[in-house]
Input
Amino acid sequence: METEANSLYRKLPQLGEVLDSPGAAKLASLYSRDLIADAARAVLARMRQQVKAGECDEASLELALRGLFEAIERELAMRLKPSLCRVINATGVILQTNLGRAPLSRAAIERIGEIAGGYCNLEMDLQTGDRGWRDVHVESLLLNLLALRSGEPIGSLQGRRAVAVVNNCAAATLLALNTMAEGGEVIVSRGELVEIGGGFRIPEILQKSGAVLREVGTTNRTRIADYAAAMTAQTRLILRVHRSNFRIEGFTQQPRLQELIELGARHSVPVFEDQGTGCLVSLDEYGMRDESSWLESATSGAALISASGDKLLGGPQCGILVGDCGLIDRVRANALFRALRVDKLTYAALDATLFAYLSGADSSIPAIAMLAMSAGDLRRRCELYVEALQSDQVAAEVVPVSSLVGGGTTPDATLPGFGVALMHAEMTENAVAALLRRLEPPIVALTREGRVLLDLRTVLQDEDADAIRVLRDALNGPVSPTSAGG
Ligand SMILES: *Cc1c(COP(=O)(O)O)cnc(C)c1O
Output
């Protein structure tokens, strides 16, 4: 035994020999010598380990050595694989925060490409050559769009409202509260002291902003009189928070935004609304209701409104503040704005997204197209999957599904459609779902009643061919020991 292992060890090449051979020269066009050396060392160490454990004989070692450079290349590819990668979202949750929320439109992607590769007039006024504001790039587009969609004359918001864009809606809310209410009191209904996912809690953000929370009313009912009774000389702001990801049903009461604005006006206290969704389309068309409207808020007398860029607006991650010009000036002058501002790529994508709405091309925005996708179209796509995936190993079937908007919007509304249910002869549904997450590209699916469920509403149509190919290969290939069982 001892002598046989020794003779096998002698067959293993030295690291130097490996690095000086033609196989390594080929890899050198792709990877640095240090990286190749490190990967080769790891592969040789594994082989030595196998010899030591008595796991190879002469023949199997020779075979392994013949594939040495392929093994080194695989090792390199595995080590250098980017952590962030594209995935196919088959969950049916359109604004899935864990999967990056809204996919961008073609136009937004192209604009990012155009701006990213060179210089741009991010903060320069090209007319005068003077320093400019980065927010001007989306301001007039957004103001025109908000006016147009709420049936007001184009240009009617110019000069009255202004826009500031920051990293996300949480940042916008923090910045607004800090600018308007640091050191003073903010009145909020107890029914709106919510947590919005990812640890964004209204009371905590308020505290961080340096303002003091003055809660009024109860969880289910708050009256305008509750707000009025809480007004003091320290009151700086009335805050209205869109409840986002949950809903209070039954014995409830909440003043309308307009009532809060009127009360505030009597006391010279402004109203700030954390609206959230940034929705510019009518959800009624899709059988859903939204209790708050970005359009109504932005054109109301609320002093400031915050919304997310990557929720129902369907644009890049950002937080958009629309408000009175004087207030937006104060927001921009706040040192926090400098810390929370966005880069040129965000403006590029946001600008292109807003332009799509302005030109009536709403359906070029993937999130909106997904909302609007008809059950008939979904069923036809599902049938293609079923036909391609059905086999001795796999039972595939078209089934009705309910998609969700997600991203903390319309929590109880669902979109009826169709999906593909899959059952594998030798694997549990959880094992299949895990296998799908390891594919290239990974596919994230749901599991339901012993089956894996692919909701195609959130699978982009140009991903269908890829998805079908990788699914067919994975599900009908040999079952590897790690993917079998539960
Ligand atoms: C989603 C949401 C937020 C947080 O938005 P991000 O863009 O994720 O930071 C804040 N407020 C409301 C009302 C929301 O719906």
